[in-house]
Design a protein that fits this description.
Number of strands: 40
CATH topology of the largest domain: D-amino Acid Aminotransferase, Chain A, domain 1
CATH class of the largest domain: Alpha Beta
Strand order of the largest sheet: 13-12-9-10-11-14-22-20-19
CATH superfamily of the largest domain: ATP-grasp fold, B domain
Length: 666
């Protein structure tokens, strides 16, 4: 019997495993990098062991350090979570050799499914439909478009869509470098790309002796950068025949390798032809496992532990049909409008109304998160802040409840994809399932423009800021904010939101505030923590919080019934040292420079790659905004840069002098 489990992972998945372990009476051990030392999962463990360094290669990918930590902390088992070492057969063997229980599949199974190239051959021999394998040498124009994929990993790392054979070698090189950084293995392969396919996967649990339980399917089609954003169970719109065939194919795949433990068989489904193809088998728990738990009423981590202990009775696991519908969204610190660039910084606030954390019994909202208010979101790891899961008797009901929960959540600090998630859940093409496909965001770019539906949020922020400053004043504190003996021009408060400046005009007198440009709005009350407005007889309440001191406020956090915003205060006077030269390309996020493709004095064409950055395990190519000459290139390969660092200065050709290029973010 297992008595203490070390989780060889971080964040929300570590907390998720801890939740089940505590319920089962099992002790919990965390390992953490220096960057993660202050996160909740470290404090929640019974014991925590520091792993030196910050990057994945220095910490969570060091199997020897993880095993040493388990032995030092008295753990007798290791749960790998997902990502990092979870599908590393060598690590699984090292765990067993150290006398520890490995809560996962047999190393041989990991190896056989670990190579997407070899696993396809195995599945083909087992009668499971597969897509053809291609190479840079064998692919032809008739095969386009193509998809380059990492053989040893997933999550969108090492994945590129190629629409021209001329681009294939370069994309293979980039994908290989990204895969090597994320997984320690740069092997990639090429296959045909199905433009409007659906990503449908099947949850299996095996006993290692040929017995395989199938716990239905999930749809994970809504993706950006080939990473899942919205997942749900059961998959909508499948006929009984297709669902049954998917389940049997997954059962055959798991049985072919005598699979043990929880795993997922992933398929590409073509709704037009009702055909599906094997993509890969993930020999671990999936990020989206909660939706399966909600509709089948099971605890997949508990099943993993039971299989590892040899006490699981899979022949008795007959969950019956799924009950109701569950939808999960991944809340990321990223800017969808800036090509999903990862965002970093301190979480000024993270509060979502929910019924339970890491589990849910019945109707409601479940929250799985690795962060809390005040935590720092860094550059070293994935940008996911939380998973929010809704269960309801119907799919539309789950989508509606989840959208409302996100809309009214208090999320402030780094830019997130919250508004896009709300727009996705309410989009007609999602609700009727006709648009559910991996091309959803390409087909519906309007979700990028989603924002708070309340145009009075900036006014509420300006009034809260005015009251905050008045009450914090050391002189003349009894004078109303913005008061003037002779009323002339209104006061103007300037905010920055999502890279756009907003000006709010208002008046303040002895009795009250009033907006300068809205005759239909009356200010009922204003304080640093709440603003109440009357709009044509309808009351709107806003919860507000000013971050920083009275005279140097950095941001106003505003939340209302229709959404909220982080409004960063624009100072009246700009420090000259913050100015940059025209034509400067700035780092869009903190990261490291991994390659430079230009030199000072070189002429570059519009869109030509100048350098490549890496942040949060993803590569980001910085391109010339217009044709011109590289005037400055102050960074070098290997250099760590902060957001806003000048990476390169491009002087425009005379024909392009009209371009507005000052301080562009790359």
């Amino acid at each position: 019997m297992i008595s203490k489990v070390l989780v060889a992972n971080r964040g929300e998945i570590a907390r998720r495993v801890f939740r089940t372990c505590r319920r089962l009476g099992i002790g919990c051990v965390a390992v953490h990098s220096d960057a993660d030392a202050g996160l909740p999962f470290v404090a929640e463990a019974d014991a925590a062991v520091r792993l030196p360094g910050n990057s994945p290669a220095e910490t969570y990918l060091r199997g020897d350090l993880v095993i040493e930590a388990a032995l030092r902390a008295g753990a007798d088992a290791i749960h790998p979570g997902y990502g990092f070492l979870s599908e590393n057969a060598g690590f699984a063997r090292q765990v067993a050799d150290a006398g520890l229980v490995w809560i996962g599949p047999e190393p041989a199974s990991i190896e056989r499914m670990g190579s997407k190239i070899e696993s396809k051959k195995l599945m083909e021999s087992a009668g499971v439909p597969v897509l053809g394998n291609l190479t840079a040498d064998t692919a032809t124009d008739d095969d386009l478009p193509l998809l380059v994929k990492a053989s040893a990993g997933g999550g969108g790392r090492g994945m590129r869509i190629v629409r021209s054979l001329a681009d294939l070698p370069g994309e293979v090189e980039k994908a290989s470098a990204e895969a090597a950084s994320a997984f320690g293995d740069g092997t990639v392969f090429v296959e045909p790309y199905v433009e409007r396919g659906r990503h449908v996967e099947v949850q299996v649990v095996g006993d290692g002796a040929g017995g395989v339980a199938v716990l239905g399917e999930r749809d994970c089609s809504l993706q950006r950068r080939h990473q899942k954003v919205v997942e749900e169970a059961p998959a909508p719109g499948l006929t009984e025949e297709v669902a049954s065939a998917l389940h049997e194919a997954a059962r055959a795949a798991a049985a072919a390798i005598d699979y043990r433990g929880a795993g997922t068989v992933e398929f590409l489904y073509d709704a037009r032809t009702e055909r599906f193809y094997f993509l890969e088998m993930n020999t671990r728990l999936q990020v989206e496992h909660p939706v399966t738990e909600q509709v089948y009423g099971v605890d997949l981590v508990e099943l993993q532990i039971a299989v590892a202990e040899g006490t699981a009775r899979l022949d008795a696991l007959h969950p019956g049909p799924p009950q109701g519908h569950a939808i999960e969204v991944r809340l990321y610190a990223e800017d969808p409008a800036a090509d999903y660039a990862p965002q970093t910084g301190r979480l000024l606030e993270l509060a979502l109304e929910h019924d339970d954390a890491f589990a849910l019994d019945g109707y409601g909202i479940r929250l799985d998160t690795g962060f809390e208010t005040g935590d720092e979101v860094g550059t070293h790891y994935d940008a996911m802040l939380a998973k929010v899961i809704a269960w309801a008797p119907t799919r539309v009901g789950a989508a509606r409840a989840l959208a409302r929960t996100l809309e009214t959540a208090r999320i402030h600090g780094p830019v997130t994809n919250r508004d896009q998630l709300v727009a996705s859940l309410r989009h007609p093409a999602f609700l009727d399932a006709t648009g559910v496909a991996t091309s959803f965001y390409a087909d519906h770019p309007e979700t990028l423009d989603a924002a708070s539906g309340d145009d009075l949020v900036p006014l509420a922020g300006a009034l809260a800021l005015a009251e905050h400053r008045r009450r914090g004043a050391t002189v003349q504190s009894r004078i109303p904010a913005g008061f003037r003996n002779v009323v002339a021009a209104p006061q103007v408060t300037r905010f920055e939101q999502g890279g756009v400046q907003i000006g709010v005009s208002w008046y303040g007198d002895r009795d009250r505030y009033r907006p300068a440009e809205r005759d239909d709005v009356r200010v009922v009350a204003a304080s640093p923590t709440e603003v109440v407005l009357d709009v044509d007889g309808v009351t709107r309440r806003y919860a507000t919080r000013v971050v920083a001191g009275a005279a140097t406020a950095e941001a106003v956090l505003v939340d209302g019934a229709r959404g909220g915003a982080t409004l960063r205060v624009v100072p009246r006077f700009v420090d000259p040292s913050d100015q940059v030269a025209a034509g400067s390309l700035l780092a869009p996020m903190p990261g490291s420079v991994i390659s430079v493709h230009a030199t000072v004095g070189e002429e570059v064409a519009e869109g030509q790659p100048v350098l490549v950055m890496e942040a949060m395990k993803m590569q980001h190519t910085i391109t010339a905004p217009y044709a011109g000459t590289v005037a400055e290139l102050p960074v070098t390969v290997g250099q760590q840069v902060e957001a806003g660092t000048v990476l390169v200065v491009v002087e425009a050709d005379p024909a392009d002098q009209s371009s507005d290029s000052e301080g562009e973010e790359a």
